[in-house]
Amino acid sequence: MEHFKFLNMRKLNLIKNSWDSMHNKETSIRFYNHLFRIYPNIFKLFKKLEGPRIDQLEKCKHAKAMGKAVWSSIAHIIMCINNNDNDSIFKCIDYLIRIHTNIDGFHPSMFQLSVKPFLAIMEEHHLDLETTQAYVQLFTCIISVLNKKYPKNIKQ
Predict the structure, then answer these.
(1) Where's the Globin domain (predicted)?
(2) Opening angle at CA 108, ends 68 and 77, nearest 5
(3) Closest C-alpha to 54, from 42, 69, 70
(4) How many CB atoms sit inside 10 A of residue 125's CB?
């Protein structure tokens, strides 16, 4: 668990105990609402979302699928960290990479853009500072691994 060694049992418990309240369709869609409001230029990269406006993503089948994919991946990574299952963590990270390589114009540095929308979600759920910091550490580590593993030969 070299990549996630910073997550001691206390931090992991804070994440696990709060994740259940955030692991739902509505929250995953609100993540994308925040992402596209904070970084409006990113919206145009998601070609399959050209129909709905940002404030109507909850009605878009593709937006729901995107939210489910990302949110389920995060939930799976949290579970795998708890179980010390590195292989499954990296399979999940490979899956996240695979779905992002299909986005024309996506660059791995853009994974970093997910932090502010996640912070907005945490604020909506009134998470305390210690829990928020645990999530920031988790996301920072996931983003670091995503960037390291992202294929260098992908057209960006």
Answers:
(1) 6-151
(2) 40
(3) 42
(4) 14
CA atoms within 13 A on the CB side of 63: 24
Token pair 């999530």: residue? 135
Asked if 117 contacts 22 with a C-beta cutoff of 8 angstroms, the reply is no
Pairwise CA distance, residues 93 & 82, whole Å? 16
| Domains within the chain, CATH numbers bracketed | 2-149 (1.10.490.10)
Q: Any idea what the Cα angle at residue 147 is, between residues 143 and 155, rounded to 5°?
A: 135
pLDDT along the chain (156 residues), means of 10: 76 91 88 93 81 78 88 92 88 90 85 93 94 93 87 57
